[in-house]
Write a structure and sequence with these properties.
It holds the Pfam family THEG. By secondary structure, the protein is mainly alpha-helical. It has ten helices and two strands; from the N terminus they run E-E-H-H-H-H-H-H-H-H-H-H.
Length: 221
């Protein structure tokens, strides 16, 4: 028999109780750590089960470094490492080149056709003209900064005060300005407020009254 969706109300709780609330009201079973049966750790703090477990292919492929790092290490330390170590690096390059992550990153190399042990060719040396042009530019930017201040004003020869007095007296005089008269002082000026008395008394003609009257628009019935 299927359990009903709601529990019927009771005397103590006169409301319907949904199934979801009944499930949420069940208390959880909390785990109490007593310290017994915990995983054993080695002196370095690593679980022994993690060291003895079998590594999956996905984790093993993701653990390989980038292929470009292997190639850089091989080029840098080719003359310092022993042949056994170089051979071990070659095997690591082959293993990292065959992972699915290298295929997804589009960094798979054809190790048979491409010899990665060859050194990069050195750049060709500069010619005499290029070297001279480079050194001229270096000397130009290595020099001190140019100062773009204006040149100092050159003063004339000093003069005694007796020779400067005529010019000083000429400068200290009050300058002469041209005085303009007001318009009301001119002979041709005419005051706009003073008009003839007859100009203020005018009679509006009938024609002007008709033009100023509002228009009556006939309505259609």
């Amino acid at each position: 028999m299927v359990k009903p969706k709601y529990d019927p109300p009771t005397n103590t709780f006169p409301y319907k109780i949904s199934r979801r609330l009944n499930i949420l009201s069940i208390p959880r079973k909390y785990i109490i750590d007593t310290g017994e049966g915990m995983p054993a750790l080695n002196p370095r703090g690593i679980r022994k089960s993690a060291l003895n477990s079998q590594i999956s292919d996905r984790v093993n492929d993701a653990a390989w470094p980038y292929l470009r790092r292997f190639l850089i290490i091989k080029r840098m330390y080719k003359h310092r490492f022993s042949p056994e170590r170089i051979e071990r690096i070659d095997r690591m390059i082959e293993a990292a080149n065959a992972t699915c992550y290298s295929k997804l990153a589009n960094c798979v190399l054809d190790l048979k056709k491409q010899d990665n042990t060859k050194e990069v060719k050195k750049k060709k040396g500069w010619s005499e003209s290029e070297w001279k042009k480079h050194m001229d530019y270096i000397s130009q930017i290595a020099g001190p900064r140019r100062d773009f201040k204006p040149p100092p004003i050159k003063r004339g020869i000093g003069k005694p005060l007796e020779e400067l007095l005529p010019r000083i007296n000429e400068i200290c005089h009050f300058p002469e300005f041209k005085i303009y008269r007001r318009l009301s002082k001119e002979a041709w000026y005419r005051n706009p407020e003073k008009v003839a008395p007859g100009a203020l008394k005018y009679v509006i003609s009938d024609r002007v009254k008709k033009l100023a009257a509002p228009r009556v628009i006939p309505q259609a019935f």
